[in-house]
Amino acid sequence: MATRQTTETNTAPLALLWQQMRGFRGKYAWAIAALFVFTAINYVTPLIASATIDFALAQKPDESRLTTRIIGLMGGADFVKERLWFPALLMVLLTIIAGGFSYLKGRFAAEASDGIARRLKDRLYDHLQRLPARYHDRAETGDLIQRCTSDVETLRLALASQVVDVSNAVLLLLTALPIMILLDGRMTLVSFVLVGPIIAFGYVYIGKVKHLFAEVAESEGQVTRVVQENLTGLRVVRAFARQDFEIAKFAEPNKLYRDRSLKLLHLMAWYWSTSDLIVLIQQGIVLFTGAFFISQGTLTVGTLFAFIMFLNMLLWPVRQMGRTLTDLGKSVVALNRMGEILSEPEESAPQNPATPPSPALGKIEVTDLVFGHTDENAAINGISFTVEPGETLAILGPSGAGKSTMMHLLLRLYDYSSGSIKFDGRELGDLDRQWARSQFSVVMQEPFLFSKTIGDNIRLGRGAAENEEIREAARLADIHDTINGFPSGYSTLVGERGVTLSGGQRQRVALARALLQDTPVLLLDDALSAVDAETESTILEALRSRHGRRTTLVIAHRLSTLAHADKVIVLDKGRIIQHGTHAELAEQDGLYRRLWTIQNALENEMLAETAP
C-alpha cells in the first residue's frame, strides 16, 4: 500500500489520465484509424463531384489537375458523361461507407471513455475509503460527491468527443492543404485568409473562459453540499421550523451558481456569434474570389465547388476548436479536482508490520497517551490504564473529556502523537491497520444504519453469519421481539440512515451487529443512551452473562450502565481524575460520587411520582 500511495501522490493529472487509459489505448487507436478513413472518403467525394462537373457537364477540364486522375479512375470523361448516374451512385456509396467508419469512430471512443470513467470512479471511491479520518473531517461531502460524479462525467464526455474532435480538426487540416494546393494554389491562399484569426480568436477565448469553468464547478459543489446537508438533517430542520432559513441559505449558493453559469454562457454566446461571422466572411471571400477567377477563365466551376465543399468541411471543425479546447480545459479542471483527491496520502502503514497475536486475547495497555486534533489543544493528555482480557472498563466524564476520542484511537481512526497503546503486548501502531480494526466490535455514539433490511444491517458484522446467529445477536441486544413485530420481520427496510427506526431501535440493531462480529474487544460509545432503563437492564444482563468472553470498554453518562464494570475511570480535559471500581468511586469525594448522588436522587424522585 505504501508503494501505491507514493506513486499516486507524485502523479500529475495528465500522467494519471494516461495511467487510467491503460487497456483502452488500443480502442482510441482504432477510433483514430476509423477517423482517418472517414476523413479520406469525405475528401474524395467532393473531388468526384468536381471532376464530373468539369469533364462531363461544363466540358472545361484542366488536364494538369487532380480531377483528371479522378475522372480516369471512373472510366474516363466519355464514360461518365454517358452514365451520370455512376458518379452519383459512387458518391452515395462512399457516403454510406463514411457513415460506417464514423459509427466505428464514435463506438470505439465511447467504449474507451466509458471504461476509463468507470475505472476512475472505482479508483476515487476506493481511495476515499482509505483516506485518513482527518481528511474526511475537513472535506465537504457535497464537494466530494461532485468530484466523483459530475467531474468524472465531464472528463468522460471530453474523452468521448473532444479528443476525437481535436484529432479530426488536425487531420482535416493536414489532409486538406496538399489537396487544395494541387487543385489551385491561389484559391488555397484565399481559403486560409481568416483561418489564422479564427484560431487566434479561439485561443483568446480559452484564456478568458478557463477560470470560469473552475468557478462554476466550485459553485455547483456548494449547491450539492447544501442540498445534501439539508436532506440529511431534514427532521431537525422541520422540528425547529427552519424551512424558511434553509431555503434562504440555499438561495445564496444557487444564485452564485446561476450568475457564474450565465457569465459563462454569455461568453460562449459572444464567441459563437463572432466566430460565425468570421466563418461566413471567409466563405464569402472564397465565393466572390472564385467567381472572379471563373469570369477571367482561370478557374473552373468544378474546382470552385470543390473549394467550397472543402472549406465547409474545414472551417466548421476549426471554428469548433474553440469550444472543443474550452471543453478540454473544463475537463482538465475536473481532472485536477480528481487529482487533488487521489494525491492525498492514504492511511499510513508500518513498513514492517508486527506479527499479530494468535489467538487474540483482547488485552489493552495504554501508557502516557497524548493526542490532539490540533497542535494547540490535546484531547488526550497523558492517559494510562490497563484492561485485562475479558474485563469490562467503564469510562465516564463530561462532554469533551476525550472519551470518544479514546475509542477512535483504539480503532486507529487517528494516530496518537506520543505514548503507547499495546494490544496483547504488541504496539497498536505496528500492527496492520485492517487486522487491528477487525479485533474490535464497535457501537458508535451515533449509530449508522444503511438503507437495507434490518437483517442485512446486522449481517454487516459478519457477512457469512447464518440466520440463527443473526437472531441470537438480536436477542442479546433485546431487539429480536421488536423486529418480529414488524410486518416484514428481518426483511424490513430501515430507510436511509435508519430513519424509519426510533433512536433506541437503531442503537439496539447496531449493538446486535457488533455482537454478531464476535471480536476479542467490544467498544460501546454511549451505545444505550436512547433505550429505556428496563431495556438497558436486560441488555446489560445479557452482556454480563457473556462476561469473560470479550474485553469490553463502555462509555456512558448513565451510571447504572457502569455499575457492573470491573474498573471505572473518570476523564476530565483529557486526563484521568479518578479510577477504581464502582463501589470505591461511589464512596470517594469527586465527580463520580456527585453524579451518582444526583442520578440516584432523580430516579428516586421519579419512582415516587409514578408510584400508585
CATH class of the domain at 2-342: Mainly Alpha
Beta-strand proportion: 5-15%
The helix tally amounts to 24
* The CATH fourth-level homologous superfamily of the domain at 2-342: ABC transporter type 1, transmembrane domain
Radius of gyration: 37 Å
Number of strands: 10
Give me the oligomer status.
Answer: single chain
Percent of residues in helices comes to: 55-70%
Choose one word for the global shape: elongated
Q: Give the CATH architecture of the domain at 2-342.
A: Up-down Bundle
Question: Looking across the biggest beta sheet, what order are the strands in?
Answer: 6-7-8-3-9-10
CATH topology name of the domain at 2-342 = ABC transporter transmembrane region fold
Overall pLDDT:
81
General description of the model:
With 612 residues, the chain is of the alpha/beta class. The protein has helices at residues 2-9, 13-20, 25-58, 66-73, 77-82, 85-130, 133-138, 141-148, 150-183, 185-191, 195-232, 234-239, 243-295, 301-342, 403-410, 433-437, 454-459, 467-476, 480-484, 503-517, 533-545, 559-562, 582-587, 591-610; strands at 364-371, 380-387, 392-396, 418-423, 426-427, 440-443, 521-525, 551-555, 567-572, 575-580. It has a domain at 2-342: ABC transporter type 1, transmembrane domain (ABC transporter transmembrane region fold). The strands form two sheets. It has a six-stranded mixed sheet, with helices on both faces. It has a four-stranded antiparallel sheet with strand order 2-1-4-5, with helices on one face. The longest helix is centred in the middle third of the chain and has 53 residues, at 243-295.
